[in-house]
Write a structure and sequence with these properties.
FAD binding; alpha/beta; transport; oxygen transport; FNR_nucleotide-bd; heme; Rossmann fold; about 100 residues
C-alpha cells in the first residue's frame, strides 16, 4: 500500500490515512494501520464506520459515524496544499467525487 511505501522509504511527510468501512467486522488492515499510526509520529489514522456495531459504539473505536464528507476532511486535514489519493470500490469513488 501507499502507506507502507512511505514508511519503508523513511518519508518524513505528514500522512493522514482515512479508512472507511461498514464497521469493525469489515475493517481491513485495522491492526496494521493502528500499529503504524502508533509507531510513526508523522502518521495519523482516522476511521469512518457507516454502520458501527453496538460494540464499536461502546468502545468508541472509530472517529466518524457515517460517510467521508468534505466538511469532515477539512477538520482533520490541516491544509489543502497536499497530495490526495483515494481508492475503493465504485460506489465509494462515486461518493467521493
Amino acid at each position: 500500500s501507499m502507506l507502507n511505501t512511505l514508511i519503508e522509504q523513511n518519508s518524513k511527510r505528514n500522512v493522514c490515512f482515512v479508512h472507511a468501512a461498514i464497521n469493525s467486522n469489515t475493517h481491513a488492515m485495522k491492526e496494521h494501520v493502528e500499529a503504524v499510526d502508533n509507531e510513526y509520529e508523522q502518521v495519523k489514522a482516522y476511521t469512518c464506520y457507516s454502520a458501527p456495531t453496538e460494540k464499536d459504539l461502546e468502545m468508541k473505536n472509530f472517529d466518524k459515524e457515517g460517510f467521508i464528507e468534505a466538511e469532515w476532511l477539512q477538520t482533520i486535514i490541516p491544509t489543502t496544499e497536499a497530495e490526495f489519493y483515494f481508492c475503493g470500490p465504485v460506489p465509494f469513488m462515486k461518493h467521493i467525487n
